[in-house]
Structure of Ergothioneine biosynthesis protein EgtB:
Amino acid sequence: MGIGQREDIQHAYARVRGRSLEIAGPLSDEDCCAQSMPDASPIKWHLAHTTWFFETFILEPHEAGFAPFHPAFRVLFNSYYNGVGAKHPRPQRGLLTRPSLDEVRAYRADVDRRIAQLVAGNPAPEIAALVELGLQHEQQHQELMLTDVKHLLAQNPLFPAYSSQHLPQDLEAGAPQGASSWIEFDGGLAEIGYGGNGFCFDNELPRHSTYIAPFELASRLVTNGEYREFIEAGGYRDPALWLAEGWDRVCTGELLHPLYWIDAGNGAWDEFTLHGVQPLDAERPVTHLSLYEADAYARWRGARLPTEAEWEFAARQATLAGGALHPAAANGDGIQQMFGACWQWTSSSYAPYPGYAPAPGAIGEYNGKFMVNQYVLRGSSCATPDGHARASYRNFFPAGARWQFTGVRLAR
Amino acid sequence: MGIGQREDIQHAYARVRGRSLEIAGPLSDEDCCAQSMPDASPIKWHLAHTTWFFETFILEPHEAGFAPFHPAFRVLFNSYYNGVGAKHPRPQRGLLTRPSLDEVRAYRADVDRRIAQLVAGNPAPEIAALVELGLQHEQQHQELMLTDVKHLLAQNPLFPAYSSQHLPQDLEAGAPQGASSWIEFDGGLAEIGYGGNGFCFDNELPRHSTYIAPFELASRLVTNGEYREFIEAGGYRDPALWLAEGWDRVCTGELLHPLYWIDAGNGAWDEFTLHGVQPLDAERPVTHLSLYEADAYARWRGARLPTEAEWEFAARQATLAGGALHPAAANGDGIQQMFGACWQWTSSSYAPYPGYAPAPGAIGEYNGKFMVNQYVLRGSSCATPDGHARASYRNFFPAGARWQFTGVRLAR
Amino acid sequence: MGIGQREDIQHAYARVRGRSLEIAGPLSDEDCCAQSMPDASPIKWHLAHTTWFFETFILEPHEAGFAPFHPAFRVLFNSYYNGVGAKHPRPQRGLLTRPSLDEVRAYRADVDRRIAQLVAGNPAPEIAALVELGLQHEQQHQELMLTDVKHLLAQNPLFPAYSSQHLPQDLEAGAPQGASSWIEFDGGLAEIGYGGNGFCFDNELPRHSTYIAPFELASRLVTNGEYREFIEAGGYRDPALWLAEGWDRVCTGELLHPLYWIDAGNGAWDEFTLHGVQPLDAERPVTHLSLYEADAYARWRGARLPTEAEWEFAARQATLAGGALHPAAANGDGIQQMFGACWQWTSSSYAPYPGYAPAPGAIGEYNGKFMVNQYVLRGSSCATPDGHARASYRNFFPAGARWQFTGVRLAR
Amino acid sequence: MGIGQREDIQHAYARVRGRSLEIAGPLSDEDCCAQSMPDASPIKWHLAHTTWFFETFILEPHEAGFAPFHPAFRVLFNSYYNGVGAKHPRPQRGLLTRPSLDEVRAYRADVDRRIAQLVAGNPAPEIAALVELGLQHEQQHQELMLTDVKHLLAQNPLFPAYSSQHLPQDLEAGAPQGASSWIEFDGGLAEIGYGGNGFCFDNELPRHSTYIAPFELASRLVTNGEYREFIEAGGYRDPALWLAEGWDRVCTGELLHPLYWIDAGNGAWDEFTLHGVQPLDAERPVTHLSLYEADAYARWRGARLPTEAEWEFAARQATLAGGALHPAAANGDGIQQMFGACWQWTSSSYAPYPGYAPAPGAIGEYNGKFMVNQYVLRGSSCATPDGHARASYRNFFPAGARWQFTGVRLAR
């Protein structure tokens, strides 16, 4: 379910904001403070930054008599908005032992109270739109909270589980499916980009025409078992399969196998998950791959990665909003795992759509300034909040990023 | 004039190979040995590697009783072909004081003699095609020889000229033009990629359909004078104009002004050229820009960079082979400086065309494995050999590269 | 008061071990987990590692039926003892959010209980000696806990205080003294190194003869006010004052002023202390200097740093055990601040005394293997536990280290 | 034979300056231009810098109507004298393809002519002293020319010889000797430092008393064969033998065997020398060791490195000036290879002697500012010019330096 579409904004706000605290629930204060690498952030920082977003972009311009919760937070919890001013250096987020987690919870409560006052009754459309953007933003961070804490826990030789309890969602990358088949698509001149009436990010606009040659997509994602065949066939030893940059990373030892695989000896593999170390499940989708690995695997299979236009074209034919299969779109076996298993690398660099224009002001830094040296991932993952993704959604990461739930759907 | 189209292969071989030695002519043995950065190579290395290409890909498989000129050269002068075997580390090319420049000249003469024997009479089409590829390859290195030696000489506080004599071509980036205007293009479903009968690189294939929305291109390149206005207006101090990666490089001091501009005080600028230091010519095209700078400039002007499809679409309408203006294509003032001035950054990442397939074997490493994290440049520069470029030609460099003759044509 | 000299070992154990927990007392779980740089360690890690020392070097060989508290701790909390086996990488100590601080406290309690059993009654001399070493080791870490947490808190733009309460000891670097004077020493053939019957580290042995030329020492440490004169006179801008390595660090901006000084504008300075930011006290000793700064300051004053032999010679004449002034040693005003204010840089590299032999086994790695590229500091600081230091004590750090309480006593 | 002692200054000048050109004789222009690492310099740079020394410190202050040979050379060929002004960045010396080698030779000839005019007749003592310093300085660079070019050629997979001709001196590290024995020395209160009437560097002064405990030195240097035993016994795999910094370098793969040893398979070793690759001579001294390796080897043998005072004490007893053995000093077998084979690592850090005072002005930067984090080497090597070294001579390098001819004499 999307935000604010079938529920009022107050309920959506409470639901989404509450979910962030639920994610932090199984974690100690220490777990919430540490930062495992510059690309990841502490859980506490996520909790504060998402609050900062509401305070800075909604309360500050729209609350009568606005006073900041804490004047230093404007800098401490600014992620990358130059238009807002200075920002604490990203690699040092893990050194912020103060404010404490309790103080950040108090910060959240205070901002929540003030936002509730602001949106009570019938808020102005401009404010409602900003609240919706803030909630979508917070949902993006909810996924990062899970992937960042997974990366943190994976650095610990004890390999602790995020939670041994029943989790609110399945945090492994997709359930097993049957055999894979090729689904044919005719292509042609297609409309790409968001065309509905609900929320979308600016990078999904404008909807525009693009020409797509006929293509085929695999009916499901590549599995751990299939990827293991690639390893066993020497895939990581054959430079002919790799992009040059990828091969350089193989040679330095950075790329040896999917990020969280653990060699268990005698050809067996374990995998570190949010539930702790588990035997590798050959039937589930392979995940935590770089674009380099996804691309090399595809080449080894005589296939390739899809473009983002191909992926969206297929998704639009095959799905209803929210990821359910549209029966009429099924071609033979039908197409599976478009959403909710792993983000799917495409061969498309992250670039503006024709006529793209970011919003004016600091909020316009949300997407546009990252449109270089990143690649688009489509779909959604097991860590994506329900209802957050859609067929036109454009996720993006550098080609070497592996700590997200990133997998492979083959094309040809 | 292209290679081998209107002249026989023997003449083309002699002409192109001789040109490399001409480029090295004004340089000392020392000049030819040094390497200014890992991305650049010594002139001597270029002379040897282009010879290695003929020896390895033509003589070795096709010469009866082949014996290498020197067994160690197979490794020393292999640039990046993993299929050929080991290669000398790129950052250490400048430490190869042996073989001497004279020995490399002897290597060239020996291979030239043997290639001449092989192609005497009526060579097999496979061999003729490889010779043509070798000559096109050598022409690419001829441009690199000029840009690499320019970078080397620029590191020297004496700022020595490559040559004070009349050079065989104008080695500054394009002659002055008049005022710039916007040329309108209708776009539509267009065919992109090489479609002729002559030579092209594999990355220009296959020719394929793509949809292009209506667009406008500037009639000429951005000039030094126009770019100076950007600097004077604080372009390098306003993060709102920059891609995030570009702004990071501004903040570290890497990007302050075009690569070879020299602050002459009191608002005046000089420029280091292959002819030595000269006062900046406000009317000539600005060059030696990164994609980040090109993109920031365009944003400041309320414009953008063209896509590679837009550029090719316009070039095909506007030009005859070789860069002359097609009168019928002129829209208003006509479009200028598509070729022969500066390579023109596009917003298109370097990616395979639909259906792209590299050649089998080591020669297939020529282009395909670099198709990640690079951006396409179109046109050609003052350093490109005559007849080398064409409308479908795809040059590519990382977004931060500045030592090529890289400039900006605006689109909107 | 030293350990175990006038109190029994059980009381000493309880006192010293309890003190570590007192130091952690004002800190949150988050404060105790973070690591500000590879050279520093988290408080929690200090609490665990000092416990590991007792478990590994005493319980493991001497406790009947020894079983480890947790098998992974042998690696996690090994600092640098190759003889014990693998060790967790030092720069990643701050990522160990598990075990929790509570679990580490339980680890401490368990080992304390077992050590108490082992030393109940009349422990074997070998065990008693190891317990004493373990307590001395823990006292060294107590000082590091304070300097490491100071460094951590200093990275936080909020500049939080370690504690706003009355602290168990004065945690600023020494009380103001009067004017400085030169104290003359005759030198001659002197005995250097520990010569008593109590505890000392192996690096203080063997006591040996060394020849010392006549010299003078300043009667007190250099003050903040005096050092500010050096800054105001351009000391950080004149290469003639600096060792070449130091000047390199000045040029990169690493060295601008003492580590925790904060430019308050208009020529005023604040200083970050464990009590928070405070106005710089001109009368207190300057501290948190590198050897490079100490040496440059001395040169600017026409003086030099003492050798460690000079310092020990002077301390032996001037002090009773524990740092009290020996009246007969007073030369004019007497010598002050030898202990308890700041560690004092010497010009002596950390090297073995003639005939030095480390203990056999892993415990022998305690000191000897660090005897290269480190410089000796003498005395003790405001953060040194009472009774820990003595005239023969040899502290050592690299020349660039600044996060200890390091100051300057001039010699000539 | 020392400089200027038994020959007049004109002859000494011509002899020493001519020797630098002889060393460059076997090398091409390319060989003379390249720089293999920041610590090494191109031969051409050495030829120019040594000339710069005479021009800057003698001609500039003392020649009537002085005009520089080339104004830019003041910066280009300044090594590290901040007092002279700016300097070209050291890591970029290899990019100076201009001035050419021929121009540098012309620079040398010009300065030689002008120095000859200045010292014709009876030069002022101040000038004569500076000329002597310049010649001693040039001799130091003559040794560096050989070690730097050896390092450069060793980077080339062709492993070219510096010269296949008969060289003016034996450029391998010392001739074989017989068995090693221990020579006993009584020690006591000794005078250390230069005490003669000839030339010495400022770091050899002042002569001063030091106390030396009784010690023993090995009668000759450690041989390749003996060091090979250390390797075969697993010396590079046992952390207990190593200083911690050394072991870190073993673990990164930086230290595997002496710098120029080449594994020839089946337990055999070759060695790269200035004469090219040769089978390892088990009887010659092992050389190109870091202090870490020298120290680990000594520990493995149950010995240690000497202090510089022990070494000088022994050398003074055992030698006449110039390195000949003093018969009366022979203890049993006599002491060998003190000079002319390898520089010998000592355990002494490079520090000022008591009362050391550098010369005023820029020339005072010659030695003093390097007195931190360096270790003293004593003796001289096969690459040291005849007559350059003496018993009080203090060479110094960082503990990790290996490209000098550095070996081991054991002490205990």
Chain C has ten helices and eleven strands. Chain C has two domains: 9-155, 182-407. Residues 320-332 of chain C have pLDDT under 50 and may be disordered. The longest strand of chain C covers residues 343-349.
